[in-house]
Design goal:
Length: about 500
């Protein structure tokens, strides 16, 4: 049964101003007065009582307090975003904006957090859609009504869950139009809210709010660290799932690998944190190979870059390069071991007080040394690094911050991120790679079409670092033994 088959063609008024939108080609010509009246009554009271606050309620409260201190006397508006059309009348699965979810824990479309200046701080209010209206038929006639897409929390329930006073979001735009005083909004998520504030905000001031929210996430609290570990643990199980079905992938394509990992992500988490890279053979040399439609052949390598996203939006980001038949060839092992050595150097450089760039520089030096040793590029190593000549085969940076976005904190200032210093609580990836393109005539033929990346999620601790993804083996011999054990 589809909405198009059931909803009436005749518009039904949700209010005098806003009719409930109906499908053009519905099979019912309208709603009789008798049916409309019948649908209003005979429903049990489903209000939920004695709800407990969400697990991160204390953390989201502390984050709002920290944000309040950064912008005293200013109204702050942080939208969740709206549904986006995939095609015609179907929408993409909704994912709330990171800024909104970070400050509230709520993940509902159309939600908006407003922090009103009050005294020396702010009064936060979360604006949400209330339960679907049964008096006007919205709950069964609207395509977003509860009988079509599921029950929403009432505003009272939301207050209990998130620890924030809740109001009807449908009244917010008018209130913002009448508001006075300085205001900032996180742009790019809710055009209606931005339009209501169009004469009150500036791009420069709004960008400053976005930057501050990004930089607040550089150091993770204990709740976030726990969620990242959950994400990584589920990801490790997803990698095990893939190894167990490599024979089925050989019989089909990379799509089997993608689907296998996706099943684990949906069963144990919210989703995958990004499009899985299931790159077999020469596809491993394409950094973001997400088509995943190529063959899986014994004797080739599989570069699997994938991460489970938890129900609270924290994602893992792990890569392993695996021999599809369970054993590295001599040239594959040579390249793999070089990348492993570079990753070891990079991980060792992750510690409090170190420059953020140190782990990248350490890994790149090892790879440059290998390329000179293999006579693929003319040394000395210092010359190679100064001119960036190793980048023909290393291509990308050695890592990035990780959190609610796979490339977390992306709006942070350069001086606090790339040019910054590592602190306990930061979480980043260390992921060097070597990629020899299939058409690269500057390297011997045996190298061509081989791509290797090894990536782990590293937490900066008070005395060094912790590899959150250490459960997945990295040494070439250990990878082979692990694969053999999983294949039975």
């Amino acid at each position: 049964m589809t909405v198009a088959e059931e909803l009436p063609e005749t518009p039904v008024e949700a209010s005098e101003e806003e009719p409930i939108k109906q499908r053009k080609n519905g099979l019912y010509p309208g709603v009789s007065d008798e049916l409309a009246e019948n649908m209003k009554s005979g429903w049990a009271d489903t209000e939920l009582h004695d709800l407990q606050p969400i697990a991160q309620a204390a953390e989201t409260s502390a984050r709002r307090a920290a944000l309040s201190a950064r912008f005293p006397g200013e109204r702050l508006v942080i939208p969740a975003g709206n549904l986006k059309t995939r095609s015609n009348d179907t929408e993409y699965p909704f994912r709330a904006s990171v800024e909104y979810a970070y400050l509230t824990g709520n993940q509902t479309e159309d939600g908006v957090l407003v922090m009103e200046p009050k005294g020396e701080g702010h009064q936060a209010t979360i604006y949400l859609l209330p339960r679907s209206d049964r008096e006007n038929g919205e709950f069964w006639l609207s395509g977003q009504g509860e009988l079509w897409v599921g029950r929403r929390h009432s505003l009272t329930e939301a207050e209990q869950l998130y620890g924030i006073p809740a109001s009807d979001v449908r009244e917010l735009a008018d209130a913002l139009r009448e508001a006075t005083g300085p205001v900032r909004v996180v742009r790019g998520y809710d055009a209606g809210i931005e339009a209501a504030l169009t004469d009150k905000v500036t791009a420069e001031r709004d960008e400053e709010l976005r930057v501050v929210l990004s930089e607040m996430r550089l150091v993770k609290d204990e709740f976030e660290i726990g969620e990242l570990q959950k994400a990584v643990d589920s990801t490790a199980r997803g990698f095990e799932d893939v190894v167990r079905v490599l024979d089925k992938a050989e019989a089909t394509s990379e799509r089997y690998i993608e689907g296998t990992f996706f099943l684990r992500a949906r069963v144990e988490g919210n989703d995958v944190g990004y499009g899985s890279i299931c790159a077999a053979g020469p596809h491993a040399c394409t950094l973001h190979w997400v088509r995943n439609d190529g063959p899986v052949r014994s004797g080739d390598l599989l570069l699997l870059d994938a991460g489970v996203e938890t129900h609270t939006y924290y994602t893992a980001d792990v890569t392993r390069t695996l021999p599809i038949n369970g054993r590295f060839s001599e040239i594959q092992k040579k390249i793999y071991d070089a990348v492993y050595e570079a990753q070891e150097a990079g991980i060792a450089a992750v510690k409090p007080g170190a420059k953020y760039r140190d782990f990248h520089d350490a890994a790149q030096r090892v790879l440059a040394e290998k390329l000179v040793e293999w006579r693929l590029v003319e040394g000395p190593v210092e010359r190679v690094l100064e001119l960036g000549l190793q980048r023909r085969w290393t291509l990308h940076g050695t890592g990035h911050m990780l959190g609610m976005d796979v490339h977390d904190c992306a709006a942070a200032r350069t001086e606090t991120y790339v040019e910054g210093v590592l602190e306990p609580g930061m979480c980043l990836t260390v992921e060097p790679g070597l990629y020899f393109q299939a058409d690269d005539l500057t390297v011997p033929e045996e190298y061509r079409g081989i791509g290797v990346r090894i990536e782990d999620d590293i937490l900066v601790t008070a005395d060094g670092n912790r590899n959150l993804s250490a459960a997945l083996p990295r040494r070439s011999a250990e990878v082979e033994a692990w694969m053999a054990s999983l294949k039975g």
